[in-house]
Amino acid sequence: MKNDSTTNLTIAGVLIAMATALGAFGTHALKPLLAPARFDSFEIGVTYQFFHALGLMGIALLQRSHPESAGLRWSARLILVGLLLFSGSIYALTFGAPRFLGMVAPVGGTSLIVAWAIFAASCLRLRLPSATP
User: Fold this and answer.
1) Is residue 114 part of a domain?
2) DSSP string for residues in 51-87
């Protein structure tokens, strides 16, 4: 990718727009049709997508001042993989995918955890300046 920051900001924006649309669709169209447990799972997928897309946006903004950071690059990539596997498997199960697909969600969750651990280690390595006035 030529500019990881711009690409990741764009992807984050699309993911947030999708989460907003999915949340509205879920509340207005799916809630009356789904069993409460299945709807709750769908909401978890949307919530995770929102939070991690916002996190991806933060990583992308930090990449603007540290474009050379492999840790930030890997954090962003693992967040994307994690969201695809975690939220994606939940969405698929909501719409009737085979139950074995539920085993994919923990792999996605692990990817998200590793992404944030790499992000934290990268921030320590980057020695970011203090935000004191």
Assistant:
1) yes
2) HHHHHHHHHHHHHHH-TT-HHHHHHHHHHHHHHHHHH
132 within domain boundaries = no
The phi and psi torsions of 87 (rounded to 5 degrees) equal: -65, -40
The tokens describing 96, both together, are 């009737």
Find the domain containing 24 and state its range. Answer: 4-125
**Tens-place pLDDT, residues 12-63:** 999 999 999 999 999 999 998 988 988 999 999 999 999 999 999 999 999 9
CA–CA gap between residue 95 and residue 33 (Å, rounded): 11
Which tokens belong to 127?
A: 């020695």
CA torsion sign for 16, 113, 6, 130 is positive
Asked whether 77 and 84 are in contact (CB, 8 A), the reply is: no
The per-residue pLDDT for range 54-106, each reduced to its tens digit, is 999 999 999 999 999 999 999 999 999 999 999 999 999 998 889 998 999 99
Residue 68 domain-assigned? yes
Whether residue 130 lies inside any domain: the answer is: no
* Number of independent structural domains in the chain: 1
